[in-house]
Every structure is written in C-alpha cells, then in structure tokens.
Amino acid sequence: MQDQCVPIATPVRQVKLAGYTIQVTDSKPTFWARVCAGDWEPGALAAISAHVKPETWFLDLGAWVGPTTLLAARLGARCIAVEADPQALRELRGNLACNPALAARTTVIDRAVSPTPAPVTLAARRKPGDSMSSALLAEQTEAGRIRWRVDAITPAQLAASVPAEAPLFIKLDIEGGEFALLPHMAPLLQRGGPTRVLASFHPGVLRETGAPEDAIHARTALALAPFAGWHGEEIDPSAGKSGDGAPPDARLIASGQQSDSWMFTRRDTGPD
Questions:
Q1: Mean pLDDT, consecutive 10-residue segments, the chain of 272 residues?
Q2: How far apart are CA 64 and CA 90, in angstroms?
Q3: Does residue 228 sit within a domain?
Q4: What CA–CA distances, in Å, run from 170 to 1, 10, 94?
Q5: Which CATH number do you get for residue 111?
Q6: What rounded mean pLDDT belongs to the chain?
Q7: Residue 239 lies in a domain
Q8: Residue 142: what pLDDT?
Q9: Which helix (H) or strand (E) holds 63?
Q10: DSSP classification of residue 126
C-alpha cells in the first residue's frame, strides 16, 4: 500500500488527516505518521468529522499543534484555536501557514482558557510543546519542571466571539484544567445556538498531584454537572467509535472504567 504520509519539501510534509490531505511542518514526524496511520485519537476525529459543518463555529480549547483545528477548518468551519504553550503555538501557526485557505478561517488565541482573567502558570511534563502542559502540574514542586505564565481568556470572552445563534462545537482538552474550567462554562454552554462539546477528562493528572480518590471523584462530578440534561456519548479514543450507551458516571470515569473522552449534545440541538 502506498504511504499516505509523504514528505513533500523539507520542512513541510503532506499528511492524510481523517481522509483529507493537508500540509504540515515536519517538526513532529512521529506524531504525523500516527495521524496518517489512523492511530491518533480516531474517536475524536470521527466525532468532529460527523458533526462539524461549514456553518459551524469550532472552538478548540487546547489546540496544541492544530490537528483538530486543521480538520475542522478543512470541513469548512470557522475556527478559534486557543493554545497557551509557546512551543505548540509556533508549530500551530506554522501548520496553519502551510494551509492558507484553512488559516483564513482560523483565529489563533495565545492564552490559557480559565475561569478568571488572572494570568495562569503552566508546566510541561517533559518539555514545552509535548501536548501535556498543565496548570495542575505547575502546582507541583518537582525540581527541574519547566514553568511559564500566560495571560488568560475566560468563557465569557470567548462566547462574545461567537455569533449567538450559530452552531458551536467545542473541543476541550486542557490536561486537567477542565476540572476548574467546566463549572464556569455557562457563557458558552447556555448560549442560544446548537451546541456540542467534545471533552477530555484527565483524572490521572489529578492523581499525579496527590489528590485522594474521593477528591478525584468529586471534582469529576463537578466537571460533569454542567452537562446535566444533555445527551452524553462515550467516545472510545482508540477505536474511533462510541461506547455502550451508558450515561457518564463520575466514579467510573475517575477510575478508568468509562472512557475519559465524551461528546455532550444539548438536548435542543437538532440533527446535523
């Protein structure tokens, strides 16, 4: 079989992303090879492919180097990509620059999404740009961990950037920051237009900070509370399909017995 991920000119390569051909900088060849092979987040990519349309506004909270933003833009959406890791930002902007038509539909915000406008301290697990930068990790005292401060943007400020009645698809993957953020997401979740949220939960990051299991369960329950009355669909991140139809359960998510990736659809959101 012909390789679907072909370097076309250093430092740019051509990749297949959920069946679409895009160009990216060649700074993460191992990652993009996984994308080409269909081995990176097939469940999330399938959910985006199924529900993002040209009329959709796509809000990418934790855009990293841009795979989900690039896919949504390729599907015709108007995209807002929020990323606070300076190395990831450089690569995100580079990948957008390789795709001028997609870049024209994308706004990049170099801030951390946060419940308050106060600056946020982040830390990298290994190195900046590794996709695992987290405000929770910044609270640890581990020697040698790289930290930085970044300006914040609140849900209310983001909501003001999206037309009130436009269909909105939010992808949220901020490495544990969701536990503090989701209880304050009302400006985005209670807006007038059809709304879907693809959320990743990271109980393991809470566990790294030394949080006891009861606290992890409680914080997961608080993060799920804004979706009361919504339809929740468990996403199998490895198989590219949804789960068994059971509703989200904070204790099961916290313990790993349910997936950490869920798509929530507000009940008044009509069919695609």
A1: 45 93 91 94 95 98 97 98 95 96 98 97 87 87 84 98 96 97 97 96 94 97 97 78 78 95 87 68
A2: 10
A3: yes
A4: 35, 33, 23
A5: 3.40.50.150
A6: 91
A7: yes
A8: 73
A9: none
A10: S
Output phi, psi for 152, to 5 deg.
Answer: -110, 160
pLDDT given for residue 243 in this prediction? 61
* CA nearest neighbour of 61 among 171, 223, 135: 171
Question: d(Cα 23, Cα 17) in Å, to the nearest integer?
Answer: 10
Least Cα distance to 48 among 214, 270, 209, 263 occurs for 263
Residue that has been written with the tokens 């959406």 in this structure: 77
20 belongs to a structural domain: no
Looking at the 3D structure of the chain, how many domains does it have?
1
Amino acid identity for residue 33 in this structure: A
Q: What is the pLDDT of residue 7?
A: 44
**Residue bearing tokens 């608080």:** 222
Predicted local confidence at residue 50, as pLDDT = 96
164 belongs to a structural domain: yes
Give the residue carrying structure tokens 């620059």: 97
Residue 165 amino acid letter: E
Which residues span the domain enclosing 103? 40-265
pLDDT at 123: 92
Q: What are the E-state strand segments in the chain? A: 6-9, 12-17, 20-25, 57-61, 78-82, 106-109, 112-113, 120-123, 147-150, 152-153, 168-172, 195-200, 231-236, 241-242, 261-265
- 250: tokens are 């904070």
